[in-house]
Design brief:
The longest helix is centred in the middle third of the chain and has 31 residues, at 309-339. Helix 1 (10-22) runs parallel beside helix 11 (288-305) and helix 19 runs parallel beside helix 22. The model is unreliable at 788-793 (pLDDT under 50). The protein has two domains: 2-219 and 226-340, FAD/NAD(P)-binding domain; 399-710, Alpha-Beta Barrel (TIM Barrel). It contains 28 helices and 29 strands. It has 793 residues and is an alpha/beta fold. Strands 5, 6, 10, 11, 12, 13, 14 and 15 form an eight-stranded mixed β-sheet that branches. An eight-stranded parallel beta barrel has the order 20-21-22-25-26-27-28-29, surrounded by seven helices. Residues 396-732 form the NADH:flavin oxidoreductase/NADH oxidase N-terminal domain.
C-alpha cells in the first residue's frame, strides 16, 4: 500500500512502524508540521495492558521504552493536611520527547519517509494519490475539520482550566495535591517520568480560576510555543510548600479547557482518523498517547487481516469504538468529579481518598481490596465509624434508618412494572414476584407504579389502588412480606399522564392501544413522541380530582400496611411531565419557571403526606435530567430535590430520563449515580434526607463502592433482581458475610453457603519447592531512581 500519515505524534509514528514491519513493501510517508525535536508536554503514562500490546506488536520499541520507564505502584493523596498512600496500582511512564525520538528512529530504520517542519498537502490530493490517508493530527485536527460533514464531530468544551507543567522534583509515586485556597479548590495531578523530572498538571474550576485572578492573561496573544509565564509564577507561589524549593518548568504551557472529542464516524473512503483526531479522554484517567498507540495497533492489524481498505477500516472502527467509548465514559466520570471537587471537601479524609480513587467507576472497592487490603480495611473502619456502628460488615449490609423506618440493609428492590394485573388488582404473580424478592435479602422491596385511577394506568395490565378489592389484594402481599421476611415493603404511587393507554411492554412499549383506549391527560397538549396520543390539557378541576385520587390511594395503601410511600415524579408520567419544560408549556401558574412547574407536584406531595401516617416516610422519585437540549438538567434536579425535601420528603430516589422519546441518554455502568451524588452533597447531606442511587448498578461491588464513597445512602437495584431474586443473599455469601443484614429464611438456611464448583472442589497439590515470600509481592513500589553522587568539595 501507499500510505500518507498526517501527524507525527506517537499514534502516527507507531502506525507507520507497525505497517512497515507487516510488509516492508508498503510506501509510507509521515508529514509533521513541527520540527522533530519539538514536543509539548512532559511525561506520558501507560497501563500494563497497553504495554503488553506494544510488546506483542513490536519488541524493539517495547524494549527501548522499558529501559526508560519510571515504574511505581503507589498513589499519594494530600488532602486537608494529611497524606494517604494507596498501593498496588501499577504505572509506567516516560518522557514524551524520549518516546517520540524512539519512534522516529524506529521509523527511520524501517524505511518510513518522515517529513518534519512540513505541512501536509491537501487531504483530497493525498486521497487521490495514496491508497490510505491517516489523520493523526491531534485534538485540533485539520483533517477532521475539513471533513466535518462526514465525520460529524462533537466537541464538548469542559468547565475547568488546566495547565501542563513539569518540575525537577522527582515524585516517588502518583501525586494528587488537593489544596483548599481562599478562592476554592485547586488540584495537582503529578507523576514521575524519568530520573530527573515529573509532570505537574494544575487544574481548577473556571470559577476558582477567575476568583484567583488567573484570568488576567485570558485575552493575551501568546506566540506559538510561548508559555503564560505570569500564571507559571503564580503556580510556583501557590504550591511552594509542595515543591519544596524545586523548579516548575513550562513548555507551551497556557491555560486550557479540556475538550472531549467524539465523532459519529472515524473513516470516509480511504481516509481514517486515529488518536485525538478521532476521540479524546480526560488526562485524569490516563494518556491520549495510550489510546493513540492502541488505535495504531488495531488499525495496522485490521489492514493486514482484510483484503480491501473499506473492510479493514470498518473492522478497525467496529473493534475500537466500544473500547474508546468505554474509556470515554470512565473519563467523563473522572472529569466531572474533578470539576465538582468542591462538593467533597467536607468529607473525612479516608472517604475522600476512596471517593477520588473510585471516581471513574472503573476502580471499585473490590479492586482496591485486591491491590491494597490495608487501605480497604481503613475505608471499612472509617465508614462504620461515620455511621456510628461498631462493626465493619460490608457497607451494603449496614442498617439504615429512614425517618422512623429501620431497614436491615441498604439494598432496595427498585420499582419495576410487571403489566400483569387484572382490572388493577395484583394477583398471585405479584405475591410471588415481590415475596421472592423480600425473601431474597433486600432491605426494602418497592412495588411497581401503582396507579391512582383507571385512566391513570400506563397499560391495561397495571396495578391500582382506586378500590377496596385492590386494597385487599395488596394487604395480602404486604402481610406475606412482613410475616415471611425481615424486609420492608414500599408503595410507589403514580399517574401515567400522557404516557397512558398503551400496550403491554412486550407487545409494543409506549405504543397506543389499538382499541379500548382511554383519554390521556397532561400539563399541555404535547404527545410523548411520534405516534403517541395527544393528551388533553388539564384544567384546575382535573388537577383537584387527580390530587384527590392520590390521597384516596395513599389512604388505602396505609390501610394495607405498606411501610413507606414513594411519589413517582419521574420518567415522564404525569407529575414528572409537570416538572419538565419539554412536556409543560403552560402559561398559567403551573408552567414557565421551575418554581411554577413544581407547584402541582408539591401540592400532590403535601396532600399525600397529610393523608399518610406521620411515622411512615414519604419519598420521591425524580428524573434528574431529561437527556435533551432545553430539558431539565442535573442543576434543575438539585432544586427539585431541595423543594421536595423542604416539604418533608425523607429521601430522593434519583433516576433520569424517559420524559421524551427524543432523549439521548449516556448509558453505562452506574450512569445515573453522579446525579444522586450531586443531590446528596448539595442538598440532602445538610438536611438529613437520604439519597437513593439507581441505574445499571449491577454488582454488590458497585453498591459497596457507591456507599463507601458517599455518593448515596441506599442503592436501588432492578434488573439484577429479575436475574436473581436472591441477589442480596448471594452477595452476602460471596462476601462471606453472615449477620442481621442478610439473614437467610430458616427454610433456606442450608443454601446459605456458595455451592462448590469443579474449580473450587479440587484439592491442589504442592508444585513449588519454596513458598513465595509475601513481602516480594510489592503493594507499595516507589519510584526511587539512582541518584548521582554528590560532588566532592
Amino acid at each position: 500500500m501507499k500510505i500518507a500519515i498526517i501527524g507525527g505524534g506517537p499514534g502516527g509514528l507507531y502506525f507507520a512502524a507497525l505497517m512497515k514491519q507487516l510488509d516492508p513493501a508498503h510506501e509510507i510517508t509521515v508529514w509533521e508540521r513541527n520540527a522533530p525535536d519539538d514536543t509539548f508536554g512532559f511525561g506520558v503514562v501507560f497501563s500494563d495492558e497497553t504495554l503488553g500490546g506494544i510488546e506483542n506488536a513490536d519488541t524493539t520499541i517495547a524494549q527501548d521504552m522499558a529501559r526508560r520507564f519510571a515504574r511505581w505502584t503507589d498513589i499519594d493523596i494530600h488532602y486537608r493536611g494529611e497524606s494517604h498512600t494507596v498501593g498496588g496500582q501499577g504505572f509506567a511512564a516516560m518522557s514524551r520527547k524520549e518516546l517520540l525520538r524512539l519512534l522516529q528512529e524506529r521509523c527511520h530504520d524501517l524505511g518510513v519517509t518522515l517529513r518534519f517542519s512540513t505541512p501536509a498537502p491537501d487531504t483530497e490530493r493525498l486521497r487521490a494519490s495514496y491508497d490510505l490517508v491517516v489523520g493523526a493530527d491531534g485534538v485540533n485536527s485539520l483533517v477532521r475539520a475539513a471533513h466535518a460533514e462526514v465525520f460529524r464531530p462533537s466537541l464538548d468544551r469542559r468547565h475547568s482550566k488546566y495547565m501542563w507543567l513539569g518540575t525537577d522534583l522527582v515524585f516517588e509515586a502518583f501525586q494528587f495535591f488537593v489544596k483548599q485556597t481562599e478562592w476554592g479548590v485547586v488540584q495537582v495531578h503529578g507523576y514521575p517520568y524519568s530520573a530527573t523530572g515529573s509532570t505537574f498538571i494544575v487544574e481548577m474550576h473556571e470559577d476558582v480560576w477567575r476568583r484567583a485572578g488567573f484570568d488576567a492573561t485570558e485575552r493575551a496573544d501568546f506566540a506559538p510555543g510561548a508559555s503564560d509565564q505570569q500564571a507559571v509564577a503564580r503556580v510556583r507561589e501557590l504550591f511552594a510548600d509542595e515543591l519544596d524549593g524545586h523548579q516548575v518548568f513550562a513548555n507551551n504551557s497556557k491555560w486550557l479547557n479540556f475538550t472531549t472529542v467524539r465523532n459519529e464516524r472515524w473513516h470516509h473512503g480511504n481516509l481514517v482518523l486515529i488518536g485525538d483526531a478521532a476521540h479524546t479522554a480526560h488526562f485524569s484517567i490516563g494518556s491520549g498517547t495510550k489510546l493513540a498507540m492502541e488505535d495504531a495497533l488495531a488499525l495496522a492489524a485490521c489492514l493486514h487481516e482484510h483484503p480491501d481498505t473499506e473492510g479493514a477500516l470498518t473492522a478497525y472502527e467496529t473493534e475500537r469504538r466500544p473500547v474508546v467509548e468505554s474509556t470515554q465514559r470512565a473519563a467523563q466520570g473522572s472529569l466531572e468529579w474533578f470539576e465538582n471537587i468542591g462538593m467533597y471537601v467536607h468529607q473525612e479524609p479516608t472517604q475522600f481518598c476512596f471517593n477520588l480513587l473510585t471516581r471513574s467507576r472503573r476502580i471499585t472497592y473490590d479492586n482496591l481490596r485486591t491491590r491494597d487490603p490495608e487501605f480497604a480495611d481503613r475505608v471499612d473502619a472509617a465508614f462504620a465509624k461515620a455511621q456510628g456502628l461498631g462493626n465493619t460488615a460490608p457497607a451494603m449490609f449496614q442498617p439504615y434508618r429512614l425517618g422512623e423506618l429501620e431497614l436491615k440493609n441498604r439494598v432496595i428492590v427498585s420499582p419495576m412494572d410487571m403489566y400483569s394485573a387484572a382490572d388493577g388488582v395484583p394477583g398471585d404473580f405479584h405475591l410471588v414476584h415481590l415475596g421472592s424478592k423480600a425473601m431474597g435479602g433486600a432491605g426494602l422491596v418497592m412495588t411497581e407504579m401503582v396507579c391512582v385511577s383507571p385512566d391513570g394506568r400506563i397499560t391495561p395490565g397495571c396495578t391500582g389502588l382506586w378500590n377496596g378489592e385492590q386494597g385487599d389484594s395488596w394487604r395480602r402481599i404486604v402481610s406475606f412480606v412482613h410475616e415471611r421476611s425481615t424486609a420492608r415493603i414500599g408503595l410507589q404511587l403514580g399517574h401515567s399522564g400522557r404516557k397512558g393507554s398503551t400496550r403491554l411492554m412486550w407487545e409494543g412499549m409506549d405504543d397506543p392501544l389499538p382499541q379500548d383506549n382511554w383519554e390521556v391527560v397532561g400539563p399541555s397538549p404535547l404527545p410523548y413522541g411520534p405516534g403517541s396520543a395527544v393528551p388533553r390539557e388539564l384544567t384546575r378541576a382535573d388537577m383537584d380530582r387527580i390530587a384527590a385520587d392520590f390521597v384516596a390511594a395513599a389512604r388505602r395503601g396505609a390501610e394495607a400496611g405498606f411501610d413507606l410511600l414513594e411519589l413517582h415524579c419521574a420518567h415522564g408520567y404525569l407529575l414528572s411531565s409537570f416538572l419538565s419544560p419539554i412536556a409543560n408549556h403552560r402559561t398559567d401558574a403551573y408552567g414557565g419557571p421551575l418554581e411554577n412547574r413544581l407547584r402541582f407536584p408539591l401540592e400532590v406531595f403535601d396532600a399525600v403526606r397529610e393523608a399518610w401516617p406521620a411515622e411512615r416516610p414519604v419519598i420521591v422519585r425524580i428524573s434528574a435530567t431529561d437527556w435533551v437540549p432545553d430539558g431539565n438538567t442535573e442543576h434543575d434536579a438539585v432544586e427539585i430535590a431541595r423543594a421536595f425535601i423542604a416539604h418533608g420528603a425523607a429521601a430522593i430516589d434519583v433516576s433520569s430520563g424517559q420524559v421524551t422519546k427524543d432523549e439521548r441518554p449516556a448509558f453505562g455502568r452506574s450512569y445515573q449515580t453522579p446525579f444522586a451524588d450531586r443531590i446528596r452533597h448539595e442538598v440532602a447531606a445538610a438536611t438529613g434526607a437520604a439519597v437513593i442511587a439507581v441505574g445499571a448498578i449491577a454488582s454488590y461491588d458497585d453498591v459497596n463502592s457507591l456507599l463507601l464513597a458517599g455518593r448515596a445512602d441506599l442503592c436501588a437495584v432492578g434488573r439484577t433482581h429479575l436475574y436473581d431474586p436472591h441477589w442480596a443473599l448471594h452477595a452476602a455469601a460471596e462476601q462471606e458475610y453472615r449477620g442481621p443484614g442478610a439473614a437467610w429464611p430458616v427454610q433456606f438456611g442450608a443454601g446459605g453457603r456458595k455451592p462448590p464448583t469443579a474449580r473450587t472442589d479440587a484439592v491442589r497439590p504442592r508444585l513449588s519447592l519454596l513458598r513465595p515470600d509475601p513481602t516480594d509481592q510489592a503493594v507499595h513500589l516507589r519510584w526511587t531512581p539512582a541518584r548521582a553522587p554528590a560532588p566532592v568539595p
